[in-house]
Every structure is written in structure tokens, then in C-alpha cells.
Amino acid sequence: MTASRILVVTHEQREPARTPGLRTTRMEAFSDGVFAIAITLLVLELAVPSGSEDDLLDGVLNQWPSYLAYLVSFASIGAVWLEHTVITEFLDHATSVLIRLNLLLLMVVSFLPFPTRLLGEHIGADEPERVAVTIYGLNLFLASALVSLLWRYAVREKLIQPDLADADVKMLTKRLTPGLAGYVAMIALGLFLPVLAVLGYLAIAVYIIVPFGALRRRAAAA
Amino acid sequence: MTASRILVVTHEQREPARTPGLRTTRMEAFSDGVFAIAITLLVLELAVPSGSEDDLLDGVLNQWPSYLAYLVSFASIGAVWLEHTVITEFLDHATSVLIRLNLLLLMVVSFLPFPTRLLGEHIGADEPERVAVTIYGLNLFLASALVSLLWRYAVREKLIQPDLADADVKMLTKRLTPGLAGYVAMIALGLFLPVLAVLGYLAIAVYIIVPFGALRRRAAAA
Amino acid sequence: MTASRILVVTHEQREPARTPGLRTTRMEAFSDGVFAIAITLLVLELAVPSGSEDDLLDGVLNQWPSYLAYLVSFASIGAVWLEHTVITEFLDHATSVLIRLNLLLLMVVSFLPFPTRLLGEHIGADEPERVAVTIYGLNLFLASALVSLLWRYAVREKLIQPDLADADVKMLTKRLTPGLAGYVAMIALGLFLPVLAVLGYLAIAVYIIVPFGALRRRAAAA
Amino acid sequence: MTASRILVVTHEQREPARTPGLRTTRMEAFSDGVFAIAITLLVLELAVPSGSEDDLLDGVLNQWPSYLAYLVSFASIGAVWLEHTVITEFLDHATSVLIRLNLLLLMVVSFLPFPTRLLGEHIGADEPERVAVTIYGLNLFLASALVSLLWRYAVREKLIQPDLADADVKMLTKRLTPGLAGYVAMIALGLFLPVLAVLGYLAIAVYIIVPFGALRRRAAAA
Question: Which of A36, A172, A213 faces B33 most closely, judged by CB atoms?
Fold first, then answer.
């Protein structure tokens, strides 16, 4: 038993002594905190224009790239939070590796306000918007890839609840994939049509957030 | 069962496997985080004046619009948090649609620091204050409308606790309405008398926060 | 039953339907969030000096008023959080009035970063430091007064746990008083000797934080 | 019983009246909040460069010291959070002294964004980077020393769970030590080779975060 082992003790190993859910609780609380802060900090990126009445309205309206960036980032972080919620709800217990993967995901998510600012300041600025949109897309892609990795790792290591049907597991695995492909496509598109790519990022987040399945079932039932 | 269904799984569907309150817990924790951060970030909008002693006092006092904006925003977010607390306390379980409506509410609430800054910088600036006050009012109206929608949706979908009396439900529904009407009236008033509208926004928040009913009962009992 | 009554429903009234601790839990979570954010935002007030090597060290050291303000504010918010923790731990249930008082306390606490910045920028600036120190002291006094009010209200309304000894209640009431008197004395002193008053604010916070009783008992036992 | 005793009441003393875990819960919630905020605020230190397309890419790439500082600080706070999680998970109950030590640790951790900014702005600036790297290292050393102190205090005062094996306790004590020695070595190295010291700080954090023990066991099992 090496010195480094103690810090990576997992719930399975300590199960007799404590409830296995404890570690997950702390990870969830910390994650919720980081998600909540990252999503709320976005508003600090919005600068206040100054000027006389018409100028102020114009000034506020002319900042549409900032609002668009705010909207896309809020929706994207919200989508990752939703996916994270579903994954942790299916989790039975955590391992040390899972907690580290989660920390990596949190780093990528809490980095997003920076590309958001980059995007808000450079959309419409013709040339540099391509750079900003690409960096922004890479950040979203990384977040999405880490969420996917987190889930696949949890499934492979059998950390999910034993009573969860295999079909459910496969569905969620499938569900997390289109986002990844979508981001790759949008990053490529963004090299030619940056603003369209930003709208694509928004569409991906909305697709994850809006429960189309539930709406369709409701429409069918009506 | 489409791929998009998995992510919208609700507690009712999974009830046998886990306690139905879990999802609500995570939604509450995330909401509390966003409310707490949005309300605390407001202080960052206050700029520090510089100058010699009398100038500093003058400088601090001359910033009254910033303090007024801070006060109104703190009271308004506090009021929404209180209403949110009552709603979630009456909730028995959540659905995927409710969680998304809640996310929308959080976006509107966490946007408020921006109009607050707008207001703090442009009150007293004669012309542009009308624009700032209107944008500010629209934000408050939207937040209030979403709280109302959240509650009505929860009632219609029977997500509230079954043991809650019908009279209680009707009362809370009623209670959430005057705020909406008040904001519409204040936004209209703000086009002519902006500062008065801001005081009106404060009055609405105070009306929601201060438990007049409890005070009246106490006065009657004394 | 008026419309405004619904929102002020207290735990006692709803006790049969739900556990009485729920409302308190939500209030604690929100309070912890606001305290944690206010205390962590303080670091944003520290500006980075620029210059060559010796200049940088000089620049960093010359900012001692900012570090002092940071230290005093961190200790003061920490002290209020500690007192808040003790009060809520003694609480059996909450009422609507208590939750509103708590909201007022949170507003005063989350305002502190503003006077902190004021203090950090104006200490040593000879004249305006008197204004900054007084505003700062008033903020601390208000926070302390509201904590005291919260406790006295909880005691008078019998919201504390029935099994808590009378002696304990009186002790905590007493314990919360010297802070109030100390702040009044320091605000008066600050009109003549501002920097000394700031050290006095620090001393009050340290007095609340450091568990002298426990240390003394330990020394006696040794 | 002196007045100051009430505020330092410990769980052992109040055990019959309430569950002993309560105080620890509140301390953990507040700590998680501060850790989450400090780690998420780091992104605000990243400035957005402006310019035409190639300039923007260059500008973004030229800011590598900021990204490096962001990465090292995120990893370091993450490492402290992980160690904190393990310690509190082993805790059976808290004492007033432990809660104060924890508050001190939180102050040191939430101060880190300031040296991070210092580092990001002065790396590569030849002369002042030595000052920035040293201040940064001292902050990390202090955080590490306080985590170590927290653990040793908890062990000495028998606050940890009685069913925890002696070997486990010794291992965690050992595990927390190399970080301390590492920081001392890196601070000394930083006086001559600042950038190398920063990479050393990163290596220490990665060593704490990455579960080498688990990876090695897995490699052995494969």
C-alpha cells in the first residue's frame, strides 16, 4: 500500500464504514456550485454603453453579439448541467478516477466565460470573429466530450445503479453522441460562416435542453 | 422510445428505483446557487469615487442611483427567491419540463445585474434613464411572469403535494398575479416618470417580501 | 384568509404535512451561498500593480491598505457566518418574519465588498480615509445589529429548540452584545484615528472567531 | 461558564440534543461554496486581446502565461479541495478550533486569484516574474500547510472516525507531507528559474490529483 493510495480510496473499499453515497454528495455539491457560478458570471461580460437616450437604445441594441454570446453560453452550460444531473442521478457510487474526470469537466466548463467574452467582442468584427468562434467551439466540444467520457467510464466501471435497464443505458450513451458530432460540424462550418456556427451551437444546446420526447408524447396524447 | 427520451426521464417513471425527491433536490441546490450569486454580484456594479474628504463623501452620496438600483435589485431577486422557495416547498416532484422552465427563470434572474448597472449609471442622466428603466422593468416583468408560469404549470400537471388544500393553491396563484400587473403598470409609468417607476418596482418587491398578513395577524392579536 | 397570507405560511402551520426543518434548510443553503460568495469576492478588490522587479515588490507592499481591508472584511464576514451558524443550529423552525430578517442581514453582508474597496483605496490618503472608515464601520455595525436582532427575535418567538438550557440562551444573547458596543466605540474613534479603528474592527472579529473559552479551558487542563 | 463559551460549544457537548454531523455539514457546505467560487473566479483574470484576425490569434496565444497561471491555480485549488474532501469524509465530528482552522484555510485559498493575476501578468516580463512566482508559491505553501495542520489537529484531537484503521491515518498523514516539502523546494528554485518553479507547482497539484495508486493497480491487474 503506497502513500498515494490513501487519497484515492474509493467507496467500495470503505463501504462497511460509511454510506456509499457520501462522496457523490460532496462531488455534486461542488459541481453544482461551479456550474451555478460559471453560468451567473456570464453577465459580468456585458459592458454598459453610454450616451444620450437614442444613443443608449442604439448602444444597447448594437451589443447584440454580447447578448447572443450570453444566450449561447447560458444554454450550453445549462445543457451540460442537465446532462451532468442525469448522469449523477444514475450513479450508484463514485471512484477516484471519476472524481478527477469530473474536476477536468468543471475546469473546461468554468473556462467558458473567457471565449464568451472573446466572442461577444469580436462577432461582426469581420476578420477576428473566425478565430473567436473556433476557440469558442473547441471549448464547447471539449465540455461535451468530457461529459460523454464521464458517462462511458461510469458504465464501463459499473458505477451506475444495478437496477437501471440496459436499454436506458444505451439510450443515454446514444443521446450524448449527436452533440459531439454537431460540435465538430459547427467548428468546421465556423471557419467559413462564423455567425451561422454560433447559431448552430445554440441549436445544439436547445436540442439538449428542450425535452422534445416529452413534447411529442404530449402532442400524441392530445 | 426515441434517443431524446432518456434525458427527459421524470421521477414518476423512475420512482421504484429511487426516491422521487432527488431530482428536486439538485434543482433546488442549483437554483439557490444561482440566486445567491446573482444577488451577491450586484455589489460589483458599485464604482468607488475618488477625491479628497468632502469630495469622497459627496462622491459617495452622489452615487445614490447606484445604491437605489442595488436596493431594488436585491429586493427583487430576494422576492423571486422567496416565491421560488414557497413553490418548491409545495412541490411533490418535478418533471423535465418544469426543470427547463426553471432554467429559463434562472437565466432571466441572473441577467438582472446588467440592467441594474444600466440603471445605476443612467438614472438622473435625464434622457437615457427612460431607456434604462424600461429595460430594467421588462427584466423584472419576465422574471415575475416565469415564476407565475412555473407555479401554474406545477398546479396543472399535479406536481404539487396531494395533501395541499385547494384554497391554498388558489391563494398562491392569486398572490403571484398582482406582481405581474404591477410591473406592467410601472413599465408604462416609467416612460413618463422613470424614477417613480423604479420606486414602484421597489414597492412591488417589498410587498412580496414583507409578510403583511403575519404582521396584521399579530396586530390583531395584540 | 387574505391573498398575502399564503406566502407567509410558516412551518408550524404546515407541520403535519412536511418535516418542519425543510424551510430552515433552504434558508441555510441560500445564506451559506451568499456568505461564501461575499467572502470570496473580496479578492477581486485587490488591484495588481505593474513595474520592474523592485517596483513590483514595492508596488505589492505599498498596497498594504488593500490587504488590511481584505483581512478585516474576511474576518468580519467569517465572524458573522460563525454567529449565524450557531443561531441556525439552535433553531427549531423558522417563521416568515425570521426569513425576511435573514434576507436583510444577507443584504448588509453582501454589501461589505463596496466599503472594503472604499477602505482599501483611501487608507493612508489622509483626508478621505475618515469617510471610508466611518462608512465601513457603519456597515459592520448594521450586520452585527441584525445578527443580534435575529437571535433576540428567535428567542422571543420561541423558535429555538425547547431542550436548549435557559443559561445557554442568555449566554449567547450576552455574547452577541459586546460586538455591537465595540463597533459603536470604534466608529467614534475612527473619526479621530481612522487606522486604529480599522484595527479595532479586526480585533472585534478575531474576538468573535477565536474560541478563547476553549483555549482557556485547554490551558487550565494542561 | 464565561460568555465566550457559548459560541464555542462543540458537538460532543450537545450530542444528546442533536445529531453530531450537523455542524460538519454546514462547514462542508460553506467550504464547498468558497472552493467552487475561488476556482471559478480564476477565469475573470483572463483579459481579452483585441486586433484583426491574425493579431487576435497571436494575441490569444501570446497570453500563454495567463493560461498557465489559470491551469496551475485551477489544479492547485482542485487538489486542496480533494484533500479537504478526504479529511472531512474521515471526520466524525468537529470542534470549534477545527472550524476556525478551516476558516483560515478558506481565506488562504480564496486569496489565490490575486497571486494568479500577478503571475499571469508578469511571467515573461523578465525581472518582476521572480517576485510574482515567489508570492504565488508562498500562497500555495500556506494552503498546503493549513490542510496538513487541519488533518494533524483532527488526528490528535481524535475527531476522526473510530473505525478508521491506524494504517490509513498514518498513510494520509504521510501523503500530505511531500506537497509541503515540494513547495519549499519550488519556492527556492523559483528565485533562480521562475518558470520552472511554476511548472513544479503544476506537477505537485497533478501528483495530488491524479490517482497514481489506482492507475498502477489497474496496470498490474491488466
Answer: A36
